[in-house]
Write a structure and sequence with these properties.
The protein is an alpha+beta fold. The chain has one domain. The protein is built from 2 helices and 7 strands, in the order E-E-H-E-E-E-H-E-E. The termini are far apart.
Length: 106
């Protein structure tokens, strides 16, 4: 996850969170099936104007299943807002490369 401060004042990132919403209705109502805080040694972090911050998290089986279904969201909570800024984690790309490639000579 990459966060960029596009505002005109610095802010402080206070938390990185992960949610599992099994349907759009549950996301609209902000009622996740699972919610958690991602531990990061870089939080809290002062994000200056046009500053960048990158976060990462490890997946367990439950999160991997939610990601494969498209139900996993991650986000950050910052000091300037009461709102959690969420993004949907994209589903893993399917391997479209052939299993074996055979070089053929002329």
């Amino acid at each position: 996850m990459t966060v960029i401060n596009r505002g005109d004042e610095p802010t402080i990132l206070t938390h990185m969170v992960a949610y599992v919403f099994p349907s759009w209705w549950r996301k609209y109502r902000q009622k996740p099936d699972h919610a958690g805080i991602v531990n990061s040694p870089n939080i809290p972090f002062k994000l200056d104007i046009n500053g960048h911050w990158m976060g990462q998290m490890l997946y367990n089986d439950r999160l991997s299943t939610a990601r494969s279904k498209g139900d996993l969201y991650v986000g950050v909570i910052a000091s300037h807002s009461d709102r959690t800024h969420l993004i949907r984690v994209p589903r893993p790309k399917k391997d479209t490369a052939p299993k074996e490639q055979i070089a053929r000579g002329a």
